[in-house]
Structures are given as C-alpha cells and as structure tokens.
Amino acid sequence: MTGDLDYLIRARVSDMADDDRLYQQLIKRLHIADITVSFVMEKIKDSTTLTLSGRRHQSAGPQYFKCPERPSMQYIILFVAVVMETIGTTALQSSQQFTRLWPTLIAIVAYMGAFYFLGLTLKYMPVGIVYALWSGLGIMSITIIGFVIFGQRLDAAAIAGLTLIIAGIVVIQMFSNTTSH
Description:
This protein is mainly alpha-helical. The protein has helices at 16-30, 73-94, 101-121, 127-148, 156-175, and strands spanning 49-52, 55-58.
C-alpha cells in the first residue's frame, strides 16, 4: 500500500458480483473518490500482517517501506549494486573467458555483491523499477568503461539506443510514482 489510508476494510465475498456490489455501496455511503482493491484467492496467513506506526495492516501482496535511515538510502543501496555489477562485468571482460584467475575471482565476488545489494533494494522498491534502473545504469556504466579502458567504439545506432535508456531512467525518476513506497 502507498500513502496514508483513510479506511482499511477486510471483507469476504462469495463471488466477483458480490464484491462489485460491496464496493459500489462503499463508494456511495462513504463518498470515496478512489478505491484500491487487493484480492486474496487463498487463506491469508498471519505472516502478512505488519505493524506500521502502531497500526496493523493486512496485505496479500509485498510490502515496501521507506528506508528507516533516510529516504535516499534505497538509491545508495541500488547505486552500490550497480557499481558492483559494473566491476564484475569489467573483470569478466578482463578474465579472457575465465582463463585469468584474479579477474575471474573479482568477477564472481563482484556479481555476488551486486545481486546481494540488488536484493536489498527489493524491500524498498518494486522489482520492475529496481531492475530497470539497475540494468540501465549498469549498461551506461559498462559502456563508458568499455570505451575508456577497452577502446570499444560505438556507432550512431548504439548511441541513439543508449540515449533512449537514459531517457527511460529520467522518465522513471521524474514522473513515476512507483519508484519508492
């Protein structure tokens, strides 16, 4: 759930028509402008009950939280994941198909760290947004490293594609309400 709740209603209905009637009555009686509905198709487990700000909330889906330390912490964790992935990919290129020991070990450790930190961000942000940001920033980082360190050149189509990736990241950060909950 996002934002503050005005009402939290838990109801059991026999079918979808009954559910629709219930929500239509709630809209009329409570003068509700918007309703967000979650359907649970099986028994709700106690493990989904969470205590937030002294109130109990029930949800069948994943819960996302603001990082307790500070709001930007989720981005710091994601940035660390991107850096680790970029180090891993750079070491992978340097390993020459796993024939050099130290770059191979660096690649393995860096990828383990990248996935660890990527997993941490999933407590704070939805997986689609996390993966879009992680992969987009990783692509941009490794492209720059490929150009600077390995002398890899880009043609116009590659530059146009990378520009679209940057535009996508900017659109997500500037206009999406799903980047953090």
